[in-house]
Each structure stands twice: as structure tokens, then as C-alpha cells.
Amino acid sequence: xxxxxxxxxxxxxxxxxxxxxxxxxxxxxxxxxxxxxxxxxxxxxxxxxxxxxxxxxxxxxxxxxxxxxxxxxxxxxxxxxxxxxxxxxxxxxx
Length: 94
Hints:
Blueprint lengths: L1 H5 L11 H32 L9 H35 L1
Helix pairs in contact: 2-3
């Protein structure tokens, strides 16, 4: 994060480039969303699949985790596509 401020200046004038700032904010939001998605998926699948936490996962726990994560990502992608489609329709009406 230390480089964030130093990347914002453009040229020798020291003024902030609004386009650069917006792009960096978008990247940071995307990273935060991906981290939140991963955290939620991990929490939900752990609670669903792991009965007794230990040092290793048995075969059924591994399969459950893999299937749970696949289903979670499929559902998230479906919702994301529907949301983006709705946004595009709403923007087209404006």
C-alpha cells in the first residue's frame, strides 16, 4: 500500500491523475471482493464438510470441500452474470 500514493502523481507537477486513481480503486475493490468471496466460501464449506478438525482431511472431506467450492463458485457466477445483465438493462433504459 505504500506505493499507492507514489503511483498517483503524474509528471513533475505532482497533480493526481484521476483516471489512475479510479483504476487503482477499481483494482482494490476487485481484490477485496475476491478475498471476501474466498473467505465466505471457505467458512461455509468448512462448516459443512469438516466434522472433526485434525491435521489431515480424509477422502470424504476432500471430496466434500471440492464439491462445495465448485457449487459455491457456480452459484456466485450465476448470480454475478444475472446482476451484470440487470445492470446493463437498467443503464440502457436511462
